[in-house]
Amino acid sequence: MKDLLDGRGRLIFDWIPYNIGSILDVGCASGYYPPHYLKKCKRVFGVDPNERLVREANMNYPTIDFKVGTAENLPFKDKTFDLVIMGDVLEHVENEDKSLSEIHRVLKEDGLLIVTAPHKGLFSFMDIDNYSWYYRKLFGIKTEKPGYQNRHRHYALKDLEKLFQNKFEILSCYRSSLFLLPFVLNLRLLIRHIFGEKFEMKIKPYLNKIMDFDFSISYGRLSYCVGIKARKI
Is the pTM value of this prediction over 0.90? Predict the structure, then answer.
């Protein structure tokens, strides 16, 4: 099952301790990742603001509890989880400080937080999510898709350290990918527009191998991706 995970998912999986009690996946979308995490924990929960995706997740993975909610207002009691995951989600939230405060609230004492996000690297300008944001802003187009109303953020390590201050102690940091990952994402977008979504999905597994290779290499400050493992303080 681990072998089916991509670079980001594999990093998160490897950072999850074995036999941990409960995990919350914030921004779980349609629920692809939580079933993988069950190999290392007793219970997994997921939360996402997109009602359609949450319905899909509950239908496809009935053994996992998925709820509608935002990172700024998590529908759980204090000190509920041993570990919280934000896999490429922090850059989408409306309020970063409030989101991290909520995660701090629902984590048990010494609970763990794993975050992956876009990094302020050499090729951060190639972010395909920001192409559409600039296009919508230019033509005054609004989107109802949760998390896409604002510009897609990229973070330097010092930005994350500042956000985590007085809430989390950073234990590990992994910065990776350079050009190939954003290039392939741009290529997939181009293929989708020219040849259609079906053709893109057909070749996606082969293109993903290129992105996984790029993700496996650390480029330090030049990197396109960043991952952080931290402990609640």
Answer: yes
